[in-house]
């Protein structure tokens, strides 16, 4: 495992050193260990499957890349690696980095980002939600399958929570779903999904 550097990294440094190490993200030049676990990866994979089916049924020219980096802002050393990202194939000609590496910098290329909440839940509910909204991504899901988020975010008592965030202006409007609820996505109205469907057994 690479050692975490003590000096700040540029975006270019991060891509050169950690592009293929899916464990790490970059936030303001700081290397972040996302600590993915087996259950986390299982939930991510299940979600990608349900989203992929909904995309195919809607006959959209959208796809889910196997791996992709998202650079939210020019001039800021930040690189995100959403657990699931849906890209619009028709917009990729406008992505200046795409032909050389799987890096997205324009919001118009992105239809949806999904973060499966883990130990670093604060970032998923605050920092990433703010970045994705300011970037203009139309829909963001945070899937807190263990109910780890703070009570300000998922209520009391804490419980597994699926939050669909829909962009309104430069902020997200949120709708939360609990176990047993059918998730509604404005982006994918034909989605057939409950939080229960993606929980690890």
From TrEMBL:
Q: Name one Pfam family in it.
A: Uma2
Q: Which GO terms describe its molecular function?
A: endonuclease activity
The record's keywords, sorted A to Z, are: Endonuclease, Hydrolase, Nuclease
Q: Which Gene3D superfamilies match?
A: tt1808, chain A (3.90.1570.10)
Protein name (record): Uma2 family endonuclease
Every copy of the Putative restriction endonuclease domain together lies at 11-195
CDD domains recorded: DUF820-like (cd06260)
Task: Say which domain of life the source belongs to.
Answer: Bacteria
Q: Which InterPro entries match?
A: Nuclease_put_TT1808, Restrct_endonuc-II-like, Uma2
């Amino acid at each position: 495992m690479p050692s975490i550097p003590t000096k700040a990294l540029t975006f270019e440094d991060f891509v050169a050193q950690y592009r293929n190490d899916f464990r790490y993200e970059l936030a303001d030049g700081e290397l972040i260990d996302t600590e993915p676990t087996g259950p986390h990866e299982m939930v991510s994979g299940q979600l990608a499957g349900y989203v992929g089916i909904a995309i195919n049924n809607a006959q959209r020219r959208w796809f889910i890349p196997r791996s992709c980096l998202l650079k939210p802002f020019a001039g800021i050393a930040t690189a995100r690696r959403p657990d699931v990202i849906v890209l619009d194939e028709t917009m990729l000609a406008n992505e200046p980095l795409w032909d050389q590496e799987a890096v997205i910098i324009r919001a118009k290329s992105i239809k949806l980002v999904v973060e499966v909440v883990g130990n670093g839940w604060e970032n998923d509910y605050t920092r990433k939600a703010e970045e994705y909204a300011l970037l203009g991504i139309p829909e963001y899901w945070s899937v807190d399958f263990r109910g780890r988020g703070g009570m300000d975010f998922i209520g009391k008592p804490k419980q597994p929570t699926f939050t669909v965030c829909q962009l309104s202006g430069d902020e997200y409007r949120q709708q939360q779903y609990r176990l047993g609820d059918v998730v509604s996505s404005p982006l994918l109205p034909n989605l057939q999904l409950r939080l229960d469907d993606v929980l690890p057994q």
